[in-house]
Every structure is written in C-alpha cells, then in structure tokens.
Amino acid sequence: MSQKVDLYDSAYGNYVSDTYRHVRIETYGEDFGQTSWVTTEESNEIPQLLDLRPDSFVLEVGFGSGGYALHLAEKVGCRLVGLDINPLGVRNANQLALARGLGSMARFEQCDASKNLPFDDDSFDAVFSNDVLCHLPGRPEVLAEMFRILKPGGRMLFSDALIVGGLLSNEEIATRSSIGFYVYSPPGENERLLERAGFRRIRVTDTTESASRVAKQWHDAREKRKEELVAAEGDINFEGLQRFLSCVHTLTGEKRLLRYLYFAIKES
C-alpha cells in the first residue's frame, strides 16, 4: 500500500522558492500559488460565475497558499475571507496579504471547515472552494453551512475531483489518497446533497480532461527539477508525489475518476 506523502506543507513552506514558482508557472501558465486541478481558464471564469463585484463579500473554503484569493481581491476589489486548516498556508497567505498591501481587503484564518463555520447567517455574497470539499468529512453539513452563511441570492461554486467513473483497484485508491484524507463520491451525489442543503439552479460542468492535463504538466515540471525538489522534500517524498501525480493523470485520462465543477444559488 502507498505510504502517506506530504504535498501541502512542502508547497506552502517553500512558496517563495524559485523552483516551486517555476513548477507552478509551467503547470498552470500563471502563478496563483496553486496546488489544485484548476486551470488558469477556470480561475479566470470564477469571478464571472460568482458575479463578483467591488462590493462583494466572499468566502473561500480551503484557500491553500492564499495566492488566488489575493488575485481576486486585486482584480475585482472585493473583500474576502479565507479558511484553511493548514497553519503554513495561513501564515503564507497573511504574509502575502501584508506584502501586497491587501490586509484590509483579505484575511485568512485557520479553521476546520468540516465544523460549524464561524460566521453569522446571511453574511456572504459568494462562497467557493477549489478541490477541497473532497478532503472534508461530513459533506451534507458542510454544504448546509455554506447555504446558511450565504445571503439570499448568493452564489456558490466548488469542484470535486473524486467522482467515481469506473473501476478502481485498492492500490490506485491508496496512491490517489496518499496525500491526505479523501471522500470519493458516486455520480449524482453532490447534486442530491446540494438540493438537500437548499441550493437551486444547480449547474454541473465536466472538467476531467483539464484535470488530467494539469496532473501531467505538474508531474513533468517537477521531474525537470528533481535535484532541487529532492533537496527540499527528500527523495522518498519526491517519488511519492510523482507517483500520486501519475496516478491522477492515468485515472482522469481514462475517465475512471472524474472532476466536476458545481455551481448553485441560494434563491431569494
């Protein structure tokens, strides 16, 4: 069975490293500090899907490095709160916000988002989460909390890269799950849970091919910089992450694991 592999501490702890920055640029084409399957095209579409404006108040669940949230604050001018459980990510995000002069527009807090969210009812105009809900237990409760903190008419968006589309072996599941806790979903389950939480006008987009492409580009960009990355992560962790990325590429390329983007509204 595959042993546990560190992705997030390495990514956030080495955020300012030129090696990691070049890997992100080569993987995604633009550096938002990404550790997900979100393409740059998808990143550019999110503000339109959520109808973000300068007076919007936005929540990101699982912000990672904070880079994308700060990009939204700069591009749109909206106020933003980010929640993440990783302390290195929280520290990195708040340091970035201060360095870019965005401390009054964006704040980042350590929080287990599988618990009750620390906000009043009807607080946010939009909430989004990129490839994070699959890490959280209790998805029905998480979606209910997102619904609760959204204002009437508010929009939500999340992606799930662990929709089961075909046969998976135990070793493939172990390798795909080697970077942390994961929940795998059958097709249609997220739509059912969104409706149960109260969301309406649900739209689903299949982004599996993009995820497969990102995984391959990420793997290859890291392989080019093996020596530097082994020095930062250690040989065992480097090889473990390479196996993880190869597994993602294979499973999504063969459509045995799917990635869907979900959009929904809390109707007035």
Descriptive report:
This protein is an alpha/beta fold and 268 residues long. It is built from eleven helices and seven strands. The protein has one domain (8-265): 3-Layer(aba) Sandwich (Rossmann fold). The radius of gyration is 18 Å and the shape is globular. The protein starts with 7 loop residues before the first helix and ends with a strand. 44% of the residues are buried. The mean pLDDT is 96. One of its GO terms (biological process) is methylation. Residues 59-158 form the Methyltransferase type domain.
Q: What is the general shape?
A: globular
Which stretches of 5+ consecutive residues score pLDDT under 50?
Answer: none
* Sequence of secondary-structure elements: HHHEHEHEEHEHHEHHHE
Cα-atom radius of gyration: 18 Å
Largest β sheet strand count, sense and barrel closure: 7 strands, mixed
Strand arrangement, major sheet: 3-2-1-4-5-7-6
> What's the CATH first level?
Alpha Beta
What is the architecture at the second tier of CATH? 3-Layer(aba) Sandwich
Number of helices: 11
Structural class, from secondary structure content? alpha/beta
Number of strands: 7
Strand content: 15-25%
User: How would you name the oligomeric state of the polypeptide chains in this document?
Assistant: single chain
Overall number of structural domains: 1
End-to-end span in angstroms?
A: 49 Å
Q: How confident overall, as mean pLDDT?
A: 96
- At the fold tier of CATH, the topology name is Rossmann fold
Share of helix among residues?
40-55%
CATH superfamily: Vaccinia Virus protein VP39
Keywords: Methyltransferase, Transferase, Ubiquinone
Organism: Tunturiibacter lichenicola
GO molecular function, one term: S-adenosylmethionine-dependent methyltransferase activity
InterPro entries: Methyltransf_11, SAM-dependent_MTases_sf
